[in-house]
Design a protein that fits this description.
six-stranded mixed sheet; alpha/beta
Length: 566
């Protein structure tokens, strides 16, 4: 039997690649191929840079490879409920029906999203602590880790060459914790003893020395705020998905006997989910939004949301633009939500609004670390796992590089450390790296709201043109039967030229439009769509020659049935 296992390891092929999350912040998606089966780990979104977004809400992965190979996908594993690892899941599941494996709280959130998006036929498997499951042809071990979301886990996929392990997003925290947050280092040690072939670890905190814990907690600073402002009403901002932080806030309020108002429906729903999972909040400290009294001075208003919307909510409160709350200068606003990429402008705008209203603002997050592994946390996992190969994932290239330096410091040779790019495939056979080549050409998919997301890339390009070079609209009316011009052309521009200074341009453009239509009618080649395309091409070339700009040109040809007039 041992000889048979050895023979199998000689034929098994492993391919590892990412469709997002490498050399960027967010949009995480790892793919593990073992022979003919594909395991997907994470399906997250990325928020665009504020200067380049042009109305785009977020960015997801290019699923082309997965669509072409959907029959080989055996499961999607979501390690926790943050947008950067699960936000793109509904867009994937709309196109590919596949089982999802995730933690109990995340499972509830995914089910809610699927109902909202009317996605059916998806089986969701809640993962318990130290679950072992058979997914496809292989055993998959889920080991608990400590992160900002309850039930977060790492993943180990069994192969004949050893385990392929993704550590999950984690920190070391040895203090007494609820089981839903406690990591299990004994399982991690067992995996290392059995044999880890490849270890993939996130890189977001790789530039930080030491351990992340205990500097991830806001409890010490929030306790000071509650003590110093015991007669002030306090507003606290927190991301809805930062469950660990929300529970810290609630626990502090309980300790100081402060009444709490859960401001958003999402937060109210989250607290009810936590209660279902065994987390208790004293009912006497919860204030019903319908019975809010603005004279309550012992009140803590917990405001939650995601990204830009959270800071806009705080701005609305500070500007007295909400009906139920009267904000005054005695109120204290506490920011317990980090300023993540893409929300910087909204945060600055919020700060301005608060100071204009003479409000007091305290930013906790300036001295609090996010719950991602720092250098010593990463070293601990490498030490216990003892992998043959090490692959840094999740983060900008400089962070991937710093993560790789940690492995070098621990004695790994450069040939055993792989820094990949999105679409680059690392192939392993017979326990060795065979190739590491760029095989997939990937394109970001821009999401503009919730509808028509597949067209958002076109929308983004159009907005870019409009913002820089402007638009020209050309309208003309033709007789529907004779195709003779009966009115126009009418030329309108925005953001291109000042018409009084360049009337010759509009005159020339009108002539181009008229002549193109007349020639097409005379040659009996007139077609509304084809002729509009020809006009657009000719006018665009003319405008670039005259103005050095490439505006959006929109020709409109109205064919009017004159027999119905008068």
């Amino acid at each position: 039997m041992k000889e048979t296992k050895k023979d199998l390891s000689l034929t098994e092929k492993v391919r590892i690649f990412a469709l997002g999350g490498l050399d960027e912040d967010g949009k995480n998606m790892l793919c593990i191929e073992v022979d003919d089966q594909i395991y997907i780990i994470e399906a997250g979104i990325k928020f665009p840079d504020a200067k380049e977004s042009l109305g785009i809400e977020f960015i997801i992965q290019d699923f082309s490879y997965l669509l072409e190979n959907k029959d080989r996908i055996v499961g999607v594993i979501i390690t926790h409920g943050h947008d950067d690892v699960m936000g793109a899941l509904p867009y994937l599941l709309k196109q590919i029906k596949v089982d999802v494996y995730t933690s109990p709280l995340t499972a509830k959130m995914i089910q809610k999203t699927l109902r909202k998006e009317k996605i059916t036929g998806i089986k969701i498997h809640p993962i318990k602590r130290n679950d072992h499951k058979r997914i496809g042809k292989r055993k998959v071990i889920f080991f608990p880790v400590t992160h900002a979301y309850p039930g977060t886990f790492g993943v180990a996929i069994s192969t004949t060459q050893g385990y392929i392990v993704y550590s999950g997003e984690f920190i070391e925290d040895y203090d007494a914790l609820d089981d839903k947050y406690r990591g299990d280092f004994s399982t991690i040690t067992e995996l290392g003893n059995e044999g880890v072939f490849i270890l993939l670890q996130e890189s977001k905190g790789a530039e930080r020395t030491g351990h992340t814990s205990p500097n991830h907690r806001i409890t010490p600073r929030l306790s000071q705020v509650l003590e110093q402002h015991d007669h002030s009403r306090i507003f606290i901002s927190v991301y809805t998905q930062s469950v660990y932080r929300i529970q810290e806030i609630i626990d502090c309020c309980i300790e100081y006997n402060r009444r709490m108002l859960f401001y958003t429906k999402e937060l109210q729903e989250l607290v009810s989910y936590l209660e279902e999972l065994g987390y208790e909040v004293p009912k006497e400290l919860i204030v019903d939004p319908k019975s809010l009294d603005n004279d309550m001075r012992d009140l803590v208003v917990i405001c939650s949301g995601q990204g830009k919307s959270l800071f806009k909510t705080i701005s609305n409160i500070a500007n007295n633009e909400v009906d139920e709350i009267d904000f005054d200068s005695d109120d204290v606003i506490v920011i317990a939500s980090p300023v993540v990429p893409g929300v910087e402008q909204e945060f600055k705008s919020m700060e301005n609004d608060i100071y204009k209203e003479e409000g007091k603002i305290i930013v906790l997050d300036k001295n609090v670390l996010s719950m991602h592994p720092s250098k010593e946390d990463l070293k601990m996992m490498i030490f216990l796992m003892k992998p043959k190969y090490y692959i840094p994932v999740k983060g900008e290239y400089r962070l991937l590089h710093m993560n790789s330096e940690i492995a070098l410091e621990m004695g790994y040779s450069p040939s055993k450390i792989l820094i990949l790019d999105n679409g680059q495939v690392a192939t392993f056979e017979n326990g060795k790296l065979k190739s590491c080549s760029m095989e997939l050409e990937l394109h970001d998919i821009m999401i503009d709201g919730k509808e028509n997301w597949d067209m958002a890339g076109v929308v983004l390009k159009d907005r870019e043109i409009l913002s820089t070079d402007g638009v020209m609209i050309l309208a003309i009316g033709l007789d529907a039967f004779t195709k003779k011009i009966i009115n126009g052309p009418d030329i309108q521009t925005r953001g291109l030229i000042y018409l009084r200074d360049a009337e010759y341009i509009t005159s020339d453009v009108a002539q181009i439009m008229e002549k193109t239509i007349e020639e097409a009618v005379a040659n009996k080649t007139y077609d509304n769509l084809t002729t509009r395309t020809e006009i657009r091409d000719k006018v665009s070339k003319y405008l670039f020659k005259q103005t050095a700009k490439r505006p959006m040109v929109l020709p409109v040809i109205l064919e009017i049935n004159t027999s119905n007039l008068g």
